[in-house]
Amino acid sequence: PLRLPAYLPHYDPRDQPYEHVTFDISHAGTAGSDALEMARTLGERISHVHLGDRTGTFRDEHLVPGRGSQRCAQVLRHLVSSGYRGVVSLEVSTRKVDRDQRELDLEEALSFARTHLNTRSDPSPAVLD
Question: Cα separation of 16 and 32, whole Å?
Answer without folding.
Answer: 17
